[in-house]
């Protein structure tokens, strides 16, 4: 989740007389600044309305094979000797997942490293190798990967949507090539200001002003939310190990944090499809206890849902909720009275500064330190395993290798939560 750079294995290496190809796509959390590009060979022939097309794709305007070439990267899936998609599926190992879709006017086969239940009866995936028929035989085109389980691969009007918290790209297949039709992402400078970038397969980043880039960023996310989630079929043992895991309960001695953790599970966790266990991961930035009737806990509050497979907790869903939790101290104990949550998208910076105030810089430091967050997460899981006497050795995010749990540290860990 929010970790991986999107894998775009297509390179836009050639130019027509009127158009400049697109560079590779990067996940927006880790996106690079667009490199300087050469001007088109016949700039006078490029009309302004063609470079400002905001995603329109006209295959008649250029020969796709002149702009895109087959990637050098090879598929992980071995399709040697396969004459049909069915033959490819028949040789997939257990745990893999597959789906058929139409991108542009082409029927394609998508092979994912695995799938997860997005909603009842719908299994999504965040990565896929894409194959189409070329000269009558299955041919590998490219591999795409989204930024996490909150953004399963989806299709709308023949366009494949691949995104993450801070990026979104669309693709279609034309002439046996995967064409990235639109790309949009946001970066943040040292002061936390949002810098939006947008381009189409017919344009450069610099062709769009910041206002247009931000508008297209929001529109692409809205389109993705309305797109149809690709329903993947899992190979072999598709069902998770049944049975319930013990509910997570805060194992430390502080009643204050017990109330805080329960709130995260009950309030933030209720927005997800049920899994075997929901385990919170609060990354606390600051606590203001100056007013006992309104104790303020500032942090980046995470929720992770897991199912158990073979001694490993596999993450099925989750998300981040930067904000401020308000807690009241009473004679009976503590009570959470509410939570202010930072807005997503273009409203993030303004709302974060309003909520966090003087702690805004500390929030940015916390949200960018994924290593520190993962240490907190691993320790919380390890303590949960120890407290319940479970035979669990690791946790795993979708598409990533398992992470071995550290030794339990219930006695001293929860006083500092780091």
Describe this structure in words.
With 418 residues, this protein is of the alpha+beta class. It folds into 2 domains: 28-234, no CATH class; 255-413, no CATH class. It has helices at 48-51, 64-67, 85-90, 210-225, 255-268, 348-356, 360-368, 370-388, 410-413; strands spanning 97-103, 106-112, 116-119, 122-124, 127-134, 137-145, 154-156, 159-164, 167-174, 177-188, 194-200, 228-229, 233-234, 277-288, 295-309, 312-330, 333-341, 394-396, 403-404. A hairpin with a 2-residue loop joins strand 16 (312-330) and strand 17 (333-341). Residues 1-55, 62-70 and 237-242 have low confidence and may be disordered.
Total strands: 19
Helices and strands: which structural class? alpha+beta
Low-confidence stretches: 1-55, 62-70, 237-242
Query: What is the count of DSSP helices, taking H or I runs of 4+ residues?
Result: 9
| Cα end-to-end separation | 21 Å
Quick one: biggest sheet? 6 strands, antiparallel
Spatially, the strands of the biggest sheet line up as 11-10-9-8-7-12
Overall average residue pLDDT: 79
**Strand content bin:** 25-35%
What overall geometry do the principal axes of the alpha carbons give?
globular
Helix content: 10-25%
> Strand-and-helix sequence, N→C?
HHHEEEEEEEEEEEHEEHEEEEHHHEEH
> What number of structural domains do the residues give?
2
Rg: 24 Å
């Amino acid at each position: 989740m929010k970790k991986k750079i999107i894998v775009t294995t297509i390179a836009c290496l050639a130019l027509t007389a009127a158009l400049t190809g697109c560079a590779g796509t990067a996940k927006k959390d880790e996106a690079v600044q667009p490199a300087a590009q050469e001007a088109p060979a016949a700039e006078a022939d490029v009309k302004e309305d063609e470079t400002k097309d905001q995603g329109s794709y006209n295959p008649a305007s250029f020969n796709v094979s002149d702009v895109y070439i087959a990637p050098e990267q090879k598929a992980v899936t071995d399709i040697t000797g396969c004459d049909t998609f069915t033959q490819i599926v028949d040789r997939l190992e257990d745990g893999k997942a597959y789906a058929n879709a139409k991108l542009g006017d082409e029927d394609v086969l998508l092979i994912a490293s695995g799938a997860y239940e997005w909603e009842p009866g719908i299994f999504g995936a965040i990565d896929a190798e894409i194959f189409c028929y070329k000269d009558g035989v299955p041919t590998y085109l490219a591999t795409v990967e989204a930024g996490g389980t909150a953004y399963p691969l989806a299709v709308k009007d023949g366009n494949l949507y691949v995104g993450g918290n801070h990026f979104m790209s669309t693709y279609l297949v034309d002439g046996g090539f995967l064409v990235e039709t639109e790309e949009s992402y946001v970066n943040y400078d040292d002061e936390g200001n949002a810098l939006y970038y947008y381009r189409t397969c017919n344009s450069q980043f610099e062709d769009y002003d910041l206002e247009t880039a931000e508008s297209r960023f929001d529109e692409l996310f809205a389109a993705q939310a309305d797109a149809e989630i690709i329903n993947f079929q899992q190979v072999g043992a598709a069902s998770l190990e049944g049975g319930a895991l013990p509910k997570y309960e805060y194992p430390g001695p502080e009643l204050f944090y017990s109330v805080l953790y329960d709130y995260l599970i009950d309030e933030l966790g209720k927005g997800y499809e049920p899994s075997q266990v929901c385990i919170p991961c609060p990354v606390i930035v600051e606590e203001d206890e100056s007013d006992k009737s309104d104790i303020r806990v500032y942090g980046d509050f995470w929720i992770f849902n897991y199912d158990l497979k073979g001694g490993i907790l596999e993450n099925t869903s989750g998300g981040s909720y930067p904000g401020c939790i308000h807690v009241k101290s009473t004679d009976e104990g503590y009570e959470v009275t509410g939570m202010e949550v930072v807005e997503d998208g273009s409203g993030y910076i303004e709302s974060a500064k309003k909520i966090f105030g003087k702690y805004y810089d500390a929030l940015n430091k916390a949200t960018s330190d994924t290593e520190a967050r993962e240490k907190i997460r691993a320790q919380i899981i390890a303590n949960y395993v120890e407290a319940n006497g479970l035979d669990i050795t690791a946790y795993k995010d979708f598409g990533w290798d398992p992470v071995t749990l550290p030794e339990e540290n219930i006695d001293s860990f929860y006083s500092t939560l780091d």
